[in-house]
Every structure is written in structure tokens, then in C-alpha cells.
Design brief:
With 210 residues, the chain is of the alpha/beta class. 26% of the residues lie in helices and 29% in strands.
């Protein structure tokens, strides 16, 4: 393995135990998902700007969000906030298929180019309001949200979870924390995890947060 990915993996192993997730991080060429001018920084454990006021997330955060979903490999996954396509590419190494939705059309178009350049074929892209999900493809075994919801989890996304499905989302409650929602027989079970920093989740007038 080249030195830069190996250096990143050494840093991630202190916080991430799921070897499948670590392997996916190593296999996805992050340099394909950052602007050309920032490619020397591609394997740093830090977020980077990608345009339209958005960023490619810190690899540690991507790895932790994937780990918290407890993916088996056979899931249909919804990825909210495509950005550069990097998070979707990592998820695609771990599951059967990923549907990824992005509000900014120009980012979605670039993400498609990035995914093709990286040889990722099991991701389908859509442009639209990610807070409403993609109900036409539901239910999802897992949902990943790469933007911070205000105060609570978007209700439309919870409704698109399969039985025993899991959703991970940053939630803004004065400060941001990762929240995991699990669809259990008795209702939705919520768990709060570490602090993070994401751009806000932008929703339309129909968005419900519960």
C-alpha cells in the first residue's frame, strides 16, 4: 500500500475497529474526489473544500459513520449529501447499492465524474432535497446523512428505513453530535455519539424534523 493511505489508516485504527470499513477507506482513491489543486492533501485526515460552500468530510468521520451503521454487505443504502461522491464511494465498497442525493446539481455532476474515474459502479445519483430522501427506492437498510440536521432527525428519512434499519446523522443541539436511529419493533431507538462539525442540512418547506 502506498505510504499516504497507510499513514491515514494508522491514524484511523486508533478510533475505528471495523476492518471492512478500514479496507474500504484504503481502497477508495480519495485523490479522485478532491479538486486537482488539493490532491497533495487528499490522504490527510482532514476535510477539504470542494466548491458550492461544501466540503469532502474528514476520513475519520466518514469511517466512523460507516462503522456506526453496522453494515453487513447486502444493504440498499441512501446517502444524503453526495458532495464529491467520496462517502458514497466508501459505502459502495460495503453494501449492495447506494442511492445518493445532492441539492447542488453541479456537485452531483462532478461526483458522477469522480465515481466513474474511481471505477465505482454501484452508486446511483439524484439531484434534490435530501431531507426528503428518495422514497421511490425505499425501504433502505441504512441511511447516511452528511449534513447537520437542526435539533432532530428528518422524519421523512426515518419513514424510509427498513425494519431494523439504521440511520446516522449529525444533529445540531447547540453543538453537533452524531446520532444513530434504529428502526426497532417498538419504534425508533436513538443513540448519541461523538461531536462532529458538518455544514447544515438544507430542507424545503415540506421537511419535518422529529
Amino acid at each position: 500500500m502506498p505510504a499516504a493511505p497507510e499513514r491515514l489508516l494508522r491514524a484511523l485504527r486508533r478510533h475505528v475497529a471495523d476492518e471492512r470499513v478500514l479496507a474500504a477507506i484504503a481502497e477508495v482513491p480519495r485523490d479522485r474526489f478532491v479538486p486537482v489543486a488539493r490532491r497533495e492533501e487528499a490522504w490527510d485526515n482532514s476535510p477539504l473544500p470542494i466548491g458550492a460552500g461544501q466540503t469532502i468530510s474528514q476520513p475519520l468521520v466518514v469511517a466512523r459513520m460507516c462503522e456506526l451503521l453496522h453494515l453487513r454487505g447486502d444493504e440498499l443504502v441512501l446517502d444524503v449529501g453526495t458532495g464529491s461522491g467520496y462517502h458514497a464511494a466508501v459505502l459502495a465498497r460495503l453494501v449492495r447499492h447506494v442511492h445518493s442525493i445532492e441539492l447542488h446539481e453541479e456537485l452531483s455532476r462532478q461526483a458522477g465524474e469522480n465515481l466513474r474515474a474511481a471505477g465505482v459502479g454501484n452508486v446511483t445519483l439524484a439531484v434534490g432535497d435530501g431531507s426528503l430522501g428518495l422514497p421511490e427506492h425505499a425501504p433502505y437498510g441504512a441511511i447516511n446523512v452528511a449534513a447537520a440536521a437542526p435539533h432532530a432527525v428528518p422524519g421523512a428519512l426515518l419513514e424510509q428505513l427498513a425494519p431494523d434499519g439504521r440511520l446516522v446523522v449529525p444533529v445540531e443541539e447547540g453543538e453537533q453530535h452524531l446520532m444513530v436511529a434504529r428502526a426497532a419493533p417498538g419504534g425508533i431507538v436513538l443513540e448519541r455519539f461523538e461531536r462532529v462539525r458538518f455544514v447544515p442540512l438544507v430542507g424545503g418547506d415540506e421537511t419535518r424534523f422529529v
